[in-house]
Design brief:
- The complex is a heterodimer of chains A (367) and B (520).
- Chain A is mainly alpha-helical and 367 residues long.
- In chain A, 74% of the residues lie in helices and 0% in strands.
- Chain A contains 15 helices and no strands.
- In chain A, helix 3 (55-80) packs across helix 12.
- Chain A starts with 9 loop residues before the first helix and ends with a helix.
- Chain B folds into three domains: 1-99 and 217-259, P-loop containing nucleotide triphosphate hydrolases (Rossmann fold, 3-Layer(aba) Sandwich); 261-352 and 439-520, P-loop containing nucleotide triphosphate hydrolases (Rossmann fold), CATH 3.40.50; 366-438, no CATH class.
- In chain B, helix 14 runs parallel beside helix 15 (453-468).
- The longest helix of chain B is centred in the first third of the chain and has 19 residues, at 129-147.
- Chain B is globular, with a radius of gyration of 24 Å.
- Chains A and B meet through helix 9, helix 10 and helix 15 of A and helix 10 and helix 11 of B.
- The structure holds adenosine-5'-triphosphate and magnesium ion.
- Residues 62-63, 184, 422-423 of chain B line the site of magnesium ion.
């Protein structure tokens, strides 16, 4: 209570404090690395080299970043309306179905840029559809979205496995996945963009959906801060009683916010399905939906913050994979621990340092 | 330096105070919030065992000064002396350690804890809750007896009336050993009887040697209870008087810098068509208790109908039912002849309703929004604020600036976060938004709560102008004076029913008896 409402300049709230949090996270991660007998500085070096050191490393990092932007936006939009959507994971998974159907239907006949709008629509519509029932239950029955969206993650996973194993599987093959899309159903890589910076992404799957993600960042910003609907969502999210006073329609606003949230999550499939794998596979989301929660939290539910946080997690994902390859004693699980520390310090313990910073700041402005 | 206080074995203070040293001394306190100079070189001394009032316009810097004393903000410059000793107060713990307690305008109580749990919260003094609660119970009984602060220690906070919750806040401070008690607008939400009770408690506290600082906009209260009073204007301390040697008129003038009309002047009402008609309305609260019981009345164009009543007799629920916030269980409401059952608040606004809610913090404002965002709350779908799906921020800000100028909202900055406006200025944001809509029917709850005398005059004048422009006004206020001076007709509400109707010249006595459910 004592320092929470003391106003701080933006560069401290949004620059310095997150940076300090991040440094703390890396410090403790270093301790962990040191405890298992490796050199933390060397590990950090591998992490940075492995994620940013080469063209293909950057390509992979940006590929992960793209997925995390979509899921981060998904969580953020719901959050602005006061809803905690834990279901981005399942919505992305089901969104993959829409993206794949568009590609399977069109890839024989048209070039990729004709398929793309259909894939976007398919991914968004299927993702949104997967959020509809939890949204409706929340709006009409008051069943908490946290619970229902978690349940829908499981249902979605089961549904997708069923469909892939029984419906989409290529006859005669063992892998539960669709056939590979022709180029007309894929999203092309962004070699030209990397080329502008003199980089070669090699086999990395960095693709056009990155640009779609950036457009969505802008649209989400527009939605939240420049539209009447966004105004109503924020009113509802900050003060439900003021929303009733203002006549913000609760049922409609909750459902629309969740549909947009689910749609954004679904669009993550563009990156993984149409962009990288060129087919729909089981478990292609691979936790990106859950990372979205951390990204949104760390990015303060603002698109710019989300881009930065998604990039950070992209580095951790890609660099972490490289690190465990270079230093076998640092296993995949250790990488998860390090990611967990980042989430802990940058997201959950956001306010831990604040009182101290406020105090130092006050000393400073006084002097 | 010679210690001025020692502590006994229980950690409570014993004062060895020579009464020549002021209990509190503020020397050259200065505080800026960006461009806003909230406190300018403030000097203030309060003698031990006295009640000192602080008055001043909205945004004069009263709450800021008290927040500095309580460690909520740090002064940019200046010194605080407690009992003559320079003291650095970094946070509320330090304030409590220095013997300062604060009763906030918005209570800081855990709603679903009991009284005793709230009081011991944070000062349990040991790992075993049971023990400390027993100890607290004994101590509490002593405090209650000593100061006339009776509350049931096992009652749950949210079930207590506001006055009792406030006593819990005071007990909390005393339990922590407060010798100096700060009260920031303590009577804003109290009924007159509760306010009288509070003042009795404060008198006892003073007579026992406690020092009290009281911030209020009600000059009557200042005259009734304080020993000395200081006036703040635009961040400066402009005068200090012994209460016995000043008058309400002088204080009002010192505050505002001009003569203030403390009476409302209005002409005859000129009632026209019925704009609000309520028939057999019954409203239950969330627990299913009937709050409005089969109420019927009308409000016509060109008249102000006031509802008098002790808080909690159904006025709030009545207003909410008319505004579309609470669903009635039965009965009919017509706004401008249209039945409104099933319409939400914004559809009712479309019919010409405007609503100044009783509780600005929960309803009328989103405190985290910037001022201009709140200036359209409820009207954000109006094409004036943007065609299609988009908001036209330029138009909204220009509109907000106009209202800020017209209502003298300070600081005049539509980009400031609403929470950072002073209480009275927040109220003006709501009043400006609703009255400037030029509604057909204006319903108003506690329009001048927390507002300074100058602004009260202004708001009253705007309400009367609204009436004179041929609109219907329904007014609910716990300030009987306000109801009497503004209304053309007065309905008295008791236990959810309208127990009578009077003209505005009805005496305070008569109304008081009706409000207590004694006479009709
Ligand atoms: N945290 C803050 N950030 C920016 N400005 C602030 C902040 N807190 C207060 N102010 C400004 O400081 C000035 C003094 O505010 P303060 O709350 O002390 O007034 P007040 O005298 O208590 O008024 P009221 O009678 O309306 O409660 C106001 O202009 C207010 O807008
Ligand atoms: Mg104040």
């Amino acid at each position: 209570m004592t320092t929470a409402s003391v106003p701080l300049p933006n560069w401290i709230s949004y620059g310095l404090i997150p940076l300090l949090n991040l440094m703390l996270a890396f410090f403790f991660s270093g301790l962990v690395v040191w405890a298992i007998g490796e050199n933390p500085l060397k590990a950090l070096n591998f992490l940075i080299q492995g994620s940013l050191g080469r063209g293909d490393a950057i390509g992979f990092t940006l590929f992960y970043t793209t997925s995390f932007i979509f899921t981060g936006l998904s969580v953020a939009v719901a959050f602005h309306a006061g809803l905690f959507n834990i279901g981005s994971e399942g919505q992305a998974y089901v969104g993959g179905l829409g993206a794949a159907l568009a590609a399977l239907a069109l890839d024989h006949y048209v070039p990729w840029y004709v398929t793309m709008p259909f894939a976007i629509a398919g991914a968004a519509i299927f993702g949104a559809a997967w959020a509809l029932i939890p949204a409706w239950l929340q709006a009409k029955r008051g069943s908490h979205v946290v619970i229902t969206t978690i349940m829908f993650n499981f249902i979605g996973a089961a549904l997708m496995v069923y469909l892939l194993v029984n419906v989409f599987i290529v006859p005669g093959k063992m892998a539960p996945e669709t056939r590979t899309f022709l180029p007309g159903g894929q999203l092309p890589k962004l070699d030209w963009l990397m080329g502008l910076f003199g980089l070669d992404q090699g086999p990395a799957p960095f693709n056009v959906s990155f640009l779609i993600a950036l457009v969505m960042c802008y649209l989400v910003w527009l939605l939240i801060w420049r539209t009447k609907l966004g105004y109503e969502m924020r009113t509802l999210g900050i003060s439900p009683s003021a929303a009733i006073y203002a006549g913000v329609p609760y049922v409609r606003t909750v459902i629309i916010a969740m549909l947009i949230s689910g749609g954004l999550a679904g669009m993550m499939a563009l990156n993984a399905v149409n962009g990288a794998a060129a087919r729909l596979q089981v478990e292609f989301v691979a936790g990106a939906g859950f990372v979205g929660i951390a990204v949104s939290l760390m990015g303060r539910s603002h698109p710019v913050g989300i881009i930065l946080a998604a990039f950070l997690f992209g580095i951790l994902y890609q660099g972490g994979a490289d690190l465990s390859f270079e230093m076998p004693s640092i296993t995949r699980d250790m990488i998860v621990v390090i990611q967990g520390l980042v989430i802990l310090f940058a997201g959950a313990l956001e306010y831990m340092l604040r009182p101290t910073v406020v105090r130092i700041y006050q000393q400073f402005v006084k002097a | 330096m010679r210690p001025l206080h020692i502590r006994n074995s229980k950690g409570r203070r014993l004062s060895l105070d020579p009464s020549t040293v002021p209990a509190i001394e503020l020397v050259g306190i200065d505080k800026k919030f960006g461009p806003v100079h909230a406190n300018k070189n403030i000097n203030l001394g309060v003698a031990k065992g006295t009640i000192h009032g602080i008055i001043g316009e909205n945004g004069a810097g009263k709450s800021t000064l008290m927040s500095i004393l309580y460690g909520f903000y740090q002064a940019d410059q200046g010194e605080i002396r407690i009992g003559g000793r320079p003291t650095v107060i970094r946070d509320s713990q330090a304030a409590i350690a220095a013997g300062i307690g604060m009763v906030h305008q918005h209570f800081m109580l855990v709603e679903n804890f009991t009284v005793i749990e709230n009081i011991t919260l944070g000062v349990e003094g040991g790992p075993l809750l049971g023990q400390s609660v027993d100890r607290a119970r004994v101590e509490l009984q002593r405090l209650e007896k000593e100061y006339g602060l009776e509350v049931d220690p096992d009652a749950v906070i949210e079930e207590l009336p506001v006055g009792a919750q406030q006593r819990v806040e005071i007990l909390k401070a005393l339990y922590r050993g407060a010798e100096i008690l700060i009260l920031d607008e303590p009577t804003g939400a109290l009924t007159p009887a509760e306010a009288d009770h509070l003042f009795n408690v404060l008198r006892i506290l003073r007579d026992q040697g406690k020092t009290i600082i009281l911030i209020t906009h009600k000059l009557r209260e200042i005259m009734a209870i304080t020993d000395t009073v200081s006036v703040m204007r635009r961040g400066e301390m402009v005068a200090t008087r012994a209460t016995a040697e000043t008058t309400v008129e002088e204080l009002a003038e010192l505050m505002v810098g001009r003569r203030v009309l403390l009476r409302v002047e209005k002409g005859e009402a000129n009632p026209g068509a019925v704009l609000l008609s309520v028939t057999n309305l019954t409203v239950k609260d969330s627990r299913g208790v009937t709050m409005v019981d089969n109420v019927s009345f009308e409000v016509k164009a060109g008249e102000i109908v006031g509802i008098a009543g002790v808080a909690g007799n159904g006025q709030s629920e009545l207003l909410e039912a008319i505004a579309g916030i609470r669903k009635p269980t039965s009965g009919e409401i017509l706004i401008d002849g249209q039945p409104v059952a099933g319409l939400d608040a914004s559809r009712r606004r479309d019919l010409g309703l405007a609503h100044i809610p009783e509780d600005r913090h929960h309803m009328g404002l989103v405190l985290k929004f910037e001022e201009y965002e709140n200036s359209i709350l409820g009207y954000h779908r109006d094409p004036k604020y943007g065609r299609g799906a988009l908001l036209d921020l330029d138009a909204i800000r220009a509109d907000a600036e106009e209202k800020i100028a017209k209502y003298d909202i300070r600081p005049p900055n539509p980009r400031l976060k609403t929470a950072n406006f002073s209480g009275g200025n927040q109220q003006k944001i709501v009043v400006a938004r609703e009255i400037e809509r030029d509604p057909k029917l204006l319903i108003v709850g506690q329009p001048t709560r927390g507002v300074d005398v100058g602004a009260i005059e202004f708001i009253h004048r705007r309400i009367i102008e609204t009436r004179d422009a041929g609109k219907a006004v329904l007014l609910v206020s716990v300030e009987l004076d306000e109801v009497r001076s503004l209304s053309d007709r007065i309905l008295v509400m008791f236990a959810g029913r309208i127990v009578g109707e009077k003209t505005s010249d009805a005496g305070e006595q008569t109304l008081g008896l009706m409000m207590a459910g004694i006479a009709a």
